[in-house]
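Before the break, one more example. Copy the sequence into your notebook; we will annotate it together after we see the structure.
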Amino acid sequence: MTSTTDVQANVAEAARLVGEAADAGARLAVLPENFALMAGSREQLIAAGEAYGAGPIQEAMSAAARMHSIWVCAGTIPVRAKGERVRAASIVYDDQGEPAARYDKIHLFDVALEDGESHLESRVIEAGEDIVVVDTPAGRLGLSICYDLRFPELYRRLLDRRAEIFAIPSAFTAFTGRAHWAPLIRARAIENLVYVVAAAQVGRHAKGRETYGHSMVVDPWGIVVAERAEGPGIVTAEVDRGRMAELRAQLPSIEHRKL
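Here is what the structure looks like once it is written out:
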């Protein structure tokens, strides 16, 4: 997606894409980080914050899941937290539209990049604490968000909870994405012998922010099995759990862990 500051338009586009994915045969759809709002200011993000379990963004994603009979990992939704902050919550809805899991982004993107772009997520986002895995029709899904990708210890914790797929809804900057996006995704897949579904923002957003795109699905051998480099749309791939089991048997590196 190329999300804007128009929440209603973004949510409508997300629901449309969920329907397109379902029509293509998908049983699980993963939306990007900030799918409902690429905020241009702290105030915009706070204003869009919803109480957990209520609000137009959550209602729309529940309705989309129910209407299309598909599980939806709803990227991130701003959920109200203490004071003037929100949680970046990835909420998973089952195919009846019921919330099945919620993960709050643990690692916050507080950086000043070489190209002059800077972000201080901790000014407006309250970090989460919990590791979350949920059973879906596609397999056991481990939840993470964007900057989490740089912290492999999180994914080992997900693996310890028997995750078979990692969801990584993201809004990677164009600057860091060109250098690190694909290598990091492939590394998380290879070292844990899991599938990775990385749904990304793409293009120009508020205040000139540019995101890298390249939404992709990577298999447990680190092969990119599906990718959309540019522009909004869907990326679909089949999760072959039998192949994952074969690869884990052939290369039992997970069993060889010492630490």
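DSSP finds six helices and 14 strands in the chain. The CA atoms of residues 168 and 198 lie 5 Å apart. Try to locate both features in your own notes.
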